[in-house]
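Final report, Chapter 2: Outcomes

The project's central promise was a pipeline that accepts a single protein chain and returns its three-dimensional structure in a standardized token representation, suitable for archiving and comparison. That pipeline is now operational. To close this chapter, we reproduce one record exactly as it appears in the project archive, with the input sequence first and the structure output second.
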Amino acid sequence: MECYWGNPQNYNHIALKEIRRLDIQWSGDKVSYYDAIKIIANKNGIELPDFVKKVLADRTKNTGTT
């Protein structure tokens, strides 16, 4: 019940280190969004996953939900 593959919403890492994972897929006309953020990340010298996490963290801070 706490395995990532069996129940990713209730996953507990075996090393007791808190980890959350999010897989995102763009398809069809949404691929252009992926391409755009990849270009921005590259221009800023940031790996794409780190860039996405930064954007989400900044957005969360701006909404006052942290």
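Archive annotation: Helices lie at 31-43, 48-63.
This record, like all others produced under the grant, will remain available to the consortium after the project formally closes.
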